[in-house]
């Protein structure tokens, strides 16, 4: 194929160099955005008198045909083209001759690619948001079933205080809601059209950048042409938001893996989200959760790769920037795949209430409540804390739990202990009494669940 720039150079060809230079095998993903952007560019060129109405119409109609033909599989994207921009332009010119050659007036591939990536990521990030809503919904629906399911909350992975499974799940709902807000925030900041920045310095043609921006659903235009073509902050912001999503999914995965182990047996994943072993017949492994945890590193890697690519680049466009696409495509696709598997995995997860309860009974997780009991009777917290600490030590040495000690023994430890202490240290009481906003008590958790329901209604409309 003759080089588009043969003229300035003799256009000598080296196959390896061409392959190395080419981005078509990954940027062909953006064909829809590229063609839609070009259609609006052509409309604007006519509106500003730069090309005629009939030229513009022919270009737009033909671009529409090309889009349909790619969509339907009638037209295959040629992998020997340099990139998607060149392919579409070449196809257009093949179909309508010289008129096709007018499209690239007052435009450069530098602003074109910056536009396409923004549009592509805007579309894909909206899909990520939908998937996040789906997961938040799955978490919230599980939580609704388990407002009274008592489990131990942990710190340092040691049993700490009684919570409910719903409360534990709602912590993830909060993280995922923040993820949505981070994405929305990034989307807002990136929704400005760079088209019209041209190669780097803008153009001498009387273009109307705002018209194109508006027709493509942007909130405005980028205000400096050199920044317009060389800014990839939006990629970094999105990838950092994706990284945080993955970190959340990875922590959640880690817990699901632990909870599914025979040591915990708190949950059982639906068969569809587990695998067996090729040698050990008894195994049911939580591979999906492990893979999500594993893929988290990959998304972090994508972010760091692009940060590193950009750090030494002088203004404005440099070919290094072509490297943005594989990183960002990989990141967004990985996040989508992980979210896509996670929502049904959480939705179908079976919860073993009895095991959670049994484990909660063994870890002295009501010790704080016993101290609080003495505080209500008049002791300072530090004194009460010490007394209960001694009581726990006695239990441990005797192989007992706090509930096993008789009232006489309690009286010997401190006279303020009375028979009502047994009611006070029941796990149900400990949880029910946690009524402060945001706490683990059923009423406080119901408020969290309502909040999430409202969030989903508002976001989804
Ligand atoms: N394929 C290129 C990229 O992805 C398009 C822009 C090329 N611009 C240029 N001046 N060579 O960045």
Give a concise summary.
This protein is mainly α and 461 residues long. The protein has helices at 15-21, 24-27, 31-47, 53-72, 84-96, 109-145, 165-190, 209-215, 225-230, 233-260, 287-310, 324-347, 353-362, 367-376, 381-398, 407-413, 421-424, 427-432, 442-460; strands at 150-155, 158-164, 192-193, 220-221, 267-268, 350-351. The protein is 62% helix and 5% strand.
Give an account of the 3D structure.
This protein has 461 residues and is mostly helical. The protein contains 19 helices and six strands. The strands form three sheets. The protein has a two-stranded antiparallel ribbon with strand order 1-2. A two-stranded parallel ribbon has the order 3-4. Helix 8 links the parallel strand 3 and strand 4 (220-221). Helix 6 packs antiparallel against helix 19 (442-460). The longest helix is centred in the first third of the chain and has 37 residues, at 109-145. The model has no long low-confidence stretch (mean pLDDT 96). Residues 23, 27, 83, 109-110, 113, 317, 319, 321-322 line the site of arginine.
The helix tally amounts to 19
Fraction of helical residues: 55-70%
Strand order of the largest sheet: 1-2
How many angstroms does the end-to-end distance come to? 50 Å
H/E series? HHHHHHEEHEHEHHEHHEHHHHHHH
Largest sheet: 2 strands, antiparallel
Low-confidence stretches: none
Strand content: under 5%
The average pLDDT is 96
Question: Which structural class best describes the helix and strand composition?
Answer: mainly alpha
Whole-number radius of gyration? 31 Å
Bound ligands, named by name, code or SMILES:
arginine
The total beta strand count reads 6
- Shape summary: elongated
């Amino acid at each position: 194929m003759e080089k588009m720039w043969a003229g300035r150079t003799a256009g000598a060809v080296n196959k390896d160099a061409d392959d190395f230079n080419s981005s078509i095998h990954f940027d062909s993903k953006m064909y829809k955005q590229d063609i839609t952007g070009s259609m609006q560019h052509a409309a604007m060129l006519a509106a500003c008198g730069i090309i005629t109405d009939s030229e513009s119409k022919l270009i737009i109609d033909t671009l529409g045909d090309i889009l349909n033909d790619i969509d339907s599989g009638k037209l295959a994207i040629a992998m020997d083209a340099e990139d998607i921009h060149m392919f579409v332009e070449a196809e257009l010119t093949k179909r309508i001759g010289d008129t096709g050659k007018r499209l690239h007036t007052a435009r450069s591939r530098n602003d074109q690619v910056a536009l396409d990536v923004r549009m592509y990521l805007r579309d894909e990030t909206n899909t990520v948001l939908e998937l996040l809503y789906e997961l938040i919904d799955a978490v919230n629906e599980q939580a609704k079933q388990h407002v009274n399911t008592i489990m131990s909350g942990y710190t340092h992975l040691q049993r700490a205080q009684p919570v409910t499974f719903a409360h534990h799940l709602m912590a993830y709902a909060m993280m995922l809601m923040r993820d949505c807000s981070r994405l929305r925030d990034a989307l807002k900041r990136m929704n400005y059209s760079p088209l019209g920045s041209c190669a780097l310095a803008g153009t001498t043609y009387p273009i109307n950048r705002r018209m194109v921006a508006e027709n493509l659903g942007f909130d405005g235009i980028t205000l400096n042409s050199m920044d317009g073509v060389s800014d990839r902050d939006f990629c970094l912001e999105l990838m950092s938001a994706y990284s945080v999503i993955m970190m959340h999914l990875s922590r959640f995965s880690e817990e699901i893996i632990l909870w599914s182990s025979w040591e915990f047996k708190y949950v059982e994943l639906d068969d569809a989200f587990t695998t067996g072993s090729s040698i050990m017949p008894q195994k049911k492994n939580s591979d999906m959760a492990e893979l999500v945890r594993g893929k988290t590193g990959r998304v972090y890697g994508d972010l760091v790769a692009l940060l590193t690519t950009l750090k030494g680049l002088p203004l404005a466009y440099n070919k290094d920037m072509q490297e943005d696409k594989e990183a960002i495509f990989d990141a967004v696709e990985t996040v989508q795949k992980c979210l896509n598997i996670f929502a049904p995995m959480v939705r179908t997860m079976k919860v073993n209430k009895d095991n959670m309860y049994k484990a909660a009974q063994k870890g002295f997780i009501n010790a704080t409540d016993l101290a609080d009991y003495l505080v209500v009777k008049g002791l300072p917290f530090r004194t009460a804390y010490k007394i209960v600490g001694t009581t726990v030590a006695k239990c441990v040495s005797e192989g007992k739990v706090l509930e096993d000690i008789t009232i006489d023994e309690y009286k010997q430890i401190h006279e303020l202990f009375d028979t009502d202490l047994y009611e006070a240290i029941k796990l149900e009481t400990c949880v029910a009494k946690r009524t402060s906003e945001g706490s683990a008590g059923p009423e406080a958790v119901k408020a969290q669940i309502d909040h999430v329901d409202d969030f989903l209604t508002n976001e989804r409309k």
